[in-house]
TrEMBL record:
Keyword terms: Carbohydrate metabolism, Cytoplasm, Glucose metabolism, Isomerase, Magnesium, Metal-binding, Phosphoprotein
Main location as per UniProt: cytoplasm
Location of the protein in the cell: Cytoplasm, Cytosol
Sample GO molecular function, one term: glucose-1,6-bisphosphate synthase activity
Single Gene Ontology BP annotation: glucose metabolic process
Protein's name according to its UniProt entry: Phosphoglucomutase 2-like 1
Amino acid sequence: MGDHVGDLNANLPCHSTGDPQLDKAIYQWITWDKNPRTRAQVEALLRDGRLDELRRRLCSRMSFGTAGLRAAMGAGFALINDLTVIQSTQGMYKYLAKCFPDLESRGLVVGYDTRGQEASSCSSERLGKLTAAVMLCKDVLVYLFSSYVPTPFVPYAVKKLGAAAGVMITASHNPKEDNGYKVYWENGAQISSPHDKEILRCIEESTEPWAEAWNENLPDVSPLRRDPLEDICRGYMEDLKSVCFHRELNTKTPLKFVHSAFHGVGHEYVQRAFRVFGFPPPIPVPEQKDPDPEFSTVSCPNPEEGESVLELSLRLAEKEGARIVLATDPDADRLAVSEQCDNCEWRVFTGNELAALLGWWMLFNWRETHPDPADTQRVCMMATTVSSKILQAFAQVEGFQYEETLPGFKWTGNKIHELEKQGKVVLFAFEESIGFMCGSVVRDKDGVSAAVVVAEMAAYLHSKNLTLSRQLANIFEIYGTHISKTSYVVCRDPPTIKRIFTRLRNWEGEAAYPKSCRGYSISHIRDVTTGYDSSQPNQKCVLPVTKNSQMVTFSFQNGIVATLRTSGTEPKIKFYTEFCAPPGKRDISSMEEELCKVTEALVEEFLEPDKNNLTRRSV
């Protein structure tokens, strides 16, 4: 299209910007975009002379992070909109056609959540239909859900239907301005290298939209479109029974549960899952049970933020006499849990604490039906490397296999595929950001199954006069207390992030990492961005090197492990610290105090929030 840039004056409401790259990008956008609202956004920016904003939107392209493509909705090649979703799907088609000779008959699964932005005439449903239209116009079978679904339904459907791949239009728990494009491979796991890079290359080779790709009505009339909603929902609920161990007990429990869907997709599906397990349906938070793309009752749609965003759920639970609150995030792939303690205060469990409970529960029930110790050797549990090491402590005592991956379930899902081919049974996997996989129904985190599994565990413990909190204390007594802290600072300036991590790598001269942090000695450093690991004989990382994201882990002499990393989905630098005590150690308060001090030192010394204008977590 570059040959036509000289015609800019005839086609655009303004003269050339003087920047050939920007001129070309503007010309392409206004020539290709058939959405009048996003096209008008670019024209308005051009009229107003906002060239820096145009460069930000038009002169770069999204790349696949820990959860696929994710960005704000709006006009521009760097954002989520009709045109970039069409381009992404065209690239997907080109790559899938190379990988699968039978692509047309195997097909693609497409799901979507309930996000939307009126200003861009952009909704997840519309983007899902455009994704389907691109494939249908190339005679590819498309399984397009007729209504919004939880994200886990897409990888489940890919496996169940034998599809070549799947796409989920969602930005999960991100702010309301965002949306995303999550891709699953034939094995039901999110795509990782080399597929992500190859799809991006194919996208860049096929940027001009095909004329038929804009026909969002094509899914309504094409004989190649199937609606998998009823079959997949029925199959998923049937397969959930594989992680239901005490149905009769569930039918009799006096426990009540409150569920918040956080204005997303989870309400109907969690209700159905509870019925499958024999429970009465959980009490829904009325203000939050129906989809609302504005997320109007919460400051941010992320239940991980804790008590402040769970306010409506906790007050309803008090009114209804429910001791357990379950909150799924907007696309229902993650789960927050809170329990009312004896003093009537609420305890919001961290992702690491919930993982300790769920890991114990899954192993406990496996053992009930597999008493032979040899069976336990087939079992594997998994965690991401920034998550708690509690499952590792379980494995050392109980004799099963423990595996770690890089952050993000795309790594976990693909590792599960490898392990299952070796005959392993992956009972449980998690990431500390309240993402849990119970059993092997889905090779991804799943808030729907996690919600009902937590309910059954709570009902069983209640029958033994135990609470979740009491059982967590029992677990720590046996396997050692694991205390962790996880938080973040917000940084919207990529050069600042680069400067922070470059400083860490050249602390005491070139390529010399810090030996201490405010007096706390560091014994080992692992940097998966560069592939360095001082604890290995060859000083090379065992985990895959990820050059496009920042992640450095510090092992302190006092036993604390701390990691700094950039988020793959949001403009955040996250920090994780954990203190692992041996079984029987009871002086927990001194451990907590030491962990707080190291965490504060890490943030102030290595991130320098005030100097670098970083926004501290406010919720």
